[in-house]
Amino acid sequence: MKRRATTEYFPGIPRIPYEGPSSKNPLAFRHYNPEELVDGKPMREHLRFSVVYWHTIRGKLSDMFGEGTAVRPWEDGSNSLELARTRVRVAFELIEKLGAPFYAFHDRDVAPEGRSLRETNRNLDAIVKVLKEEQARTGIRLLWGTACLFAHPRFVHGAATSCNADVFAYAAAQVKKAIEVTHELGGAGYVFWGGREGYSTLLNTDLKRELDHLGRFLHLAVDYKRTLGFRGQFYIEPKPKEPTKHQYDSDAAACLNFLREYDLLGDFKLNLETNHATLAGHTMQHDMEVAIAANALGSIDANVGDVLLGWDTDQFPTNVYLTTEIMLSLLKMGGFTTGGLNFDAKVRRESFEPEDLFHAHIGGMDAFARGLKIASAIRRDGRLAEFIRQRYGSWDEGIGKRIESGKAGFRELEAYMLERGDAALNRSGRQEWLENLINDFI
Ligand code: XUL
Ligand code: CO
Q1: Per-residue pLDDT tens for 348-368?
Q2: Closest C-alpha residue for ligand 1 atom 4
Q3: Active-site residues: which are they?
């Protein structure tokens, strides 16, 4: 059934047009031009923007010192199914007006929790019906689904890593349902973010047992995915801390090690979040390169933190240098397959009007469109890649080639160096020149 939304929830805000860099219209894109070709591929396909349900539709803009400030005229203070249906229409009007091709949600963002798991599942089914209608009406697709295994008090000690086996079972039932729903909605992927999979103190924690349980949980999910015939990509999303003092999936390298240790690497890729990398003490490009090296970069949660603050501020990205770095790594990898740029970001508590949701996304989308164009220009120019190629030139011939191909052992290397007397002279890393080169394009 194709039902058109009858009420407009963002009156006065049109579908956001592309007007080019000289436009002064705050509700227009200056750089994101979905059909414009970059390296022969439309921007829309390079960037695969996704809007998140949790911050954008459910975020109240509260913080630990005060209640939410968000003005959302459709909210009636209830947590009814009727309101949940309305929120779907709101979400799709917003996403459609932004022209983003994807969205993402946790099960509990879209439908209220009932008094029992059975009732909760029924609520979810009722809303999935509406999501399906709106997907069909607009052509907007689900980038990934996920389960909220951290908000309800039952998850106080974690979900898959809880000391309470019943909580593990509840989480399994919840994830089973969330995967089914993601499958039904044609989701391109499914994310596991270990909301409270970690610890606050090792005094009460059997770390090895908890990690074993997490490994078991993910294997059960993979088994069920196969049974169901869900073809979407599974992702793990690293984050080092918050809410716990230590999250097991602390960064890309820790996740890859965990996946290898529990024989899960073939079934998972990483969903990297920019500010989670910052909180882990890395740059986003660092975590991306670590994931790419393991052929495990899947998708990106595109937000930023505030480097002066040590917590997850989930802000919209506006820094063109950052988006350039991200797009350089992404283009080098060959672009997304199942993943996308998912705005896991929220407007500031002070930006409480509905219109601010548009300014935030427009800014993030334009920042990434610029990053894409700049990265593509840097690659076309070729000097950066050529510098790196030359820097490693000693590995393309002679002794370097013999080492890389596994032909030279320690004896041969000793004989080689005894003959030469010393290593060839090193050349400058030219960091400052390379930084200048990048700035020439920004
Ligand atoms: C939390 C976070 C989550 C995941 C999905 O920091 O990033 O919203 O993206 O559970
Ligand atoms: Co995230």
Answers
A1: 999 999 999 999 999 999 999
A2: 193
A3: 106, 109
